[in-house]
Design brief:
By secondary structure, the chain is mainly alpha-helical. The chain has helices at 2-8, 18-33, 42-75, 91-127, 134-165, 168-173, 206-218, 235-239, 242-266, 274-277, 280-289, 294-304, 312-330, 341-359, 375-417, 428-451, and strands at residues 89-90, 180-187, 190-194, 364-367, 370-373. Strand 4 and strand 5 (370-373) form a beta hairpin. Helix 5 (134-165) runs parallel beside helix 9 (242-266) and helix 12 (294-304) runs antiparallel to helix 13. The relative contact order is 0.08.
Length: 459
């Protein structure tokens, strides 16, 4: 028993029991140097020595048992402080579920911390050391080291588990269901994730939530009182643990990785940015203004026909005046500046291609440990692109319809104007009637030759 005691005592434990070890040695010395098995006082010697050694043995066992209980409690801390469900959940549900789960676990760890402190005090009361002595301070440092190791392993266990859950490769290789179910929406003329992938002011971003989970892991270091001081915790010691620092960096790496992946996902909308960055009415007006007006086309055609003959300038000015006069009749309320029909066709074809591209977009996509729901955005884009197509196609129809309506009104006016043809040209009334008929006929010829020729037919 004596030898077992000496063999099992750690270097940090022996100094605490130095006086008891000496007492055992003194009690056994007589048996080594003087007594024999047949000596007269052998039984008394054995009884006295056994009592002394037994007391020390029980004390050593108590010290060892207290340390064993401490280690046993701290081993439970290795169970991850985060649990993943086998289904994608809304971000707020993930956070709430974690909070509900981690609360009782943290409380258990806090209770363990108090129990560990009690166990140390139990050892102290049994050993009865000088609390200011170097030997006792060294023993407390030894227990502190065990606690720091237990906290480090506890945080490390949670961190290693979380690192796997946040690894895109790990999720793919193990065909795991995503953790978060998020949306991509159109907000404030910008395509955004809801909630955001990065931290935000509301602190409900994906990175915010993961950071909170990691903070819960780290809080393990603040749940138990220090063994070597009346107050304080083990946070500073944990921050210095190189292994944990690497794991924290690993989490940051995985968050950067998912951020890059989601940014790449957003890029598929780059060729559709005009649908939310531009105002339809403003953009369409700019498109119309990019074309030439009917008058500019008419004047250009006159310039191309110049021959340089005498009096040509006056004729051109007269032609332009006739165009202006006729425009007032058949182009009233009609947009006269717009691109060619070929350009209109190209624009509408492009918009139709964008519409087709939108219709082929997936409504749900898994990106690593995120499930992105795109239905709200796709519906908004479908609605918007239809408005753009409608604006371009309806313009051609409405503008041409207005021209036709004006021409019909003009024809009606002409028909009414030539119904009554004077039989003679003698009276003032007859002269006015004749002039009216001639004016209408002139208008018809002018419109036919000068104006309608400039109005492109619909294709």
């Amino acid at each position: 028993m004596y030898n077992d005691i000496l063999a099992t005592l750690l270097p940090v434990e022996k100094p605490l029991l130095a006086d008891r070890i000496k007492q055992m040695g003194d009690a056994l010395e007589g048996g080594i140097s003087e007594l024999r098995w047949n000596s007269e006082n052998i039984n008394k010697f054995i009884g006295n020595a056994l009592n002394i050694v037994t007391v020390v043995d029980e004390l050593v066992k108590k010290m060892k048992e207290n340390v064993r209980k401490m280690s046993e409690m701290m081993e439970k801390w290795n169970k991850p402080l985060y649990e993943r469900k086998n289904k994608a959940m809304l971000a707020e549900d993930v956070e709430q579920m974690h909070t509900a789960m981690v609360g009782p676990r943290i409380e258990d760890i806090r209770t363990n911390g108090k129990e560990i402190l009690k166990l140390m005090k139990d050892t102290m009361e049994s050993v009865k050391p000088d609390k200011t002595s170097k030997t006792w301070r060294q023993y407390v440092d030894y227990l502190n080291g065990l606690v720091i190791e237990g906290i480090t392993h506890g945080i490390g266990g949670s961190m290693l588990y979380l690192l796997d859950q946040l690894s895109i490769k790990y999720n793919k290789d193990n065909m795991l269901q995503p953790i978060f179910d998020i949306k991509v929406t159109l907000e404030n003329s910008k395509v955004e994730f809801e909630p955001s992938i990065v931290c935000n002011e509301r602190q409900n971003g994906i990175r915010d939530i993961i950071n909170k989970i990691v903070d819960d892991f780290i809080s393990l270091s603040t749940q138990m009182p220090r063994l070597d001081a009346p107050s304080g915790d083990y946070l500073n010691e944990i921050k210095d643990q190189f292994e944990l620092m690497g794991q924290f960096q690993g989490v940051t790496h995985h968050l950067d990785e998912i951020e890059d992946a989601t940014n790449h996902f957003i890029q598929q909308y780059d060729d559709k940015k005009f649908l939310w960055e531009e105002v339809l009415e403003v953009s369409f007006q700019a498109f119309l203004d990019s074309g030439e007006s009917l008058k500019e086309i008419f004047v250009k055609s006159l310039e191309e026909k110049r021959t340089g003959e005498e009096g040509e300038e006056a004729k051109i000015e007269e032609e332009i005046l006739f165009f202006d006069d006729m425009s007032n009749k058949v182009l009233n309320g009609v947009c006269t500046r717009y691109p060619t029909l070929e350009i209109f066709d190209e624009k509408i074809s492009h918009l139709e291609d964008v519409k087709t591209s939108i219709s082929h977009m997936k409504h749900s996509v898994d990106i690593g440990w995120l499930r992105v729901q795109s239905t709200p955005l796709i519906r908004e884009l479908e609605k918007t692109i239809c408005s753009w197509i409608e604006a371009h196609t309806s313009f051609l129809l409405n503008n041409t319809t207005k021209q036709i309506s004006n021409i019909r009104e003009f024809v009606k006016d002409v028909s009414e104007g030539i119904k009554v043809i004077p039989a003679a040209n003698q009276t003032e009334k007859e002269k006015k009637q004749l002039m009216s008929v001639m004016t209408h006929l002139r208008d018809v010829k002018t419109i036919k030759d000068k104006t309608l020729a400039q109005i492109e037919p619909m294709k």
